[in-house]
Amino acid sequence: MSIFDLSGRTAVITGGNGGIGLGIAQALATAGCNVSIWGRNADKNKAAAASMAGMPGKVDTQLCDVSDPASVKAAIAGALQAFGRVDGCFANAGIGGGGRHAFIDRTEEQWRTMFATNLDGVFHVFQAAARHMTERANGGDKFGRLVATSSLASLFGTARNEHYAATKAAINALVRALAVELARYGVTSNAILPGWIKSDMTARVLADDKFVGAVMPRIPVRRFGEPADFGGIAVYLMSGASSYHTADTFVIDGGYTAF
What we know:
Elements: E1 10-14, H1 19-30, E2 34-39, H2 42-50, E3 59-63, H3 69-83, E4 88-91, H4 108-118, H5 120-138, E5 144-149, H6 162-182, E6 187-194, H7 203-206, H8 209-215, H9 231-238, E7 249-252
Parallel strand pairs: 1-2, 1-4, 2-3, 4-5, 5-6, 6-7
Helix pairs in contact: 1-9, 3-5, 4-6
């Protein structure tokens, strides 16, 4: 059996109906992992599930707004009803900052809305998943994977995006703390930091020729990332191969930060 065979495992992917989340879900299902896709749009959830028809892993979808604790509790209950267990949780749902407003013009509502989804959402989802994982571990079944989607904005200054950057830097600290606290339960905790990736969130800037002209020369592999570029790291993190790898931040950026 392959060290990356995920048969019998189940993973939750928030924001799994598009972009990086869908790339992760498809790779996991291909490796035999059952996946529960959580998103706010029923039609996008349905289309995402359809794209995985015929893959070894089974697919479940849940309508979920990660900023709402009650919605998250209902979604985790639905995933457990569908598959009986949750082995991995990819907290990927998030919103972009847009870069349209100067920091001094940022409204309280804009600040709170960003944190409600990008940070509070990770808290709600990880807490629900970790509760289930630790209960299983106390019953003798020690295995869990917590993976959050962070951003290069957590490492480098991004003008007019301070609220977004702050949520992502907090996620990096959160996964490290959880890695230490939950290691005794066989649960690892890591973050993925994407570079410039083609998705709905980045569609506006990637369509700007001036932006592309400035950024592309800084990417050594000379292309923007694709959702499929996150499949390998997702399968690795879900597998037994990564059982000793925790508290890390994986930069997936085509070499952008090195150049």
